[in-house]
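Researcher: We're reviewing a set of sequences before deciding which ones to prioritize for further study. For each one, I'd like a predicted 3D structure that I can look through quickly. This is Lipoprotein. If possible, include the structure in token form so it fits the rest of the review sheet.
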Amino acid sequence: MRSLALLAAVLLAGCGPADGYQFERKEFERAAPNITVVTHPSLKALRDAAPASAKEGAAELQAWSAITSRGCEMHIVDPTQSYQPEWIGHEAAHCVYGRWHK
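Model: Here's the predicted structure for Lipoprotein, in token form for your review sheet.
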């Protein structure tokens, strides 16, 4: 039984997040964030609409958010075109915790 528990712990520790990022730190914490969701018809349209700051070092930009003192605007590809829950969740985490990764 102990060996089984140890094996499970090792296997789970090797699992990375689906979006490839590690949570580094909270910039802030908003328990009730004001989020506006903007959908784009395609990944190309989403990338074309992204500000330069979102494109820096992000060759694989899948979604992006604009954070202000009043809330957060989350930009995603229309889920009827491409449902990517890991990127929607990633951006929601930015709306709640700010810039939590580099």
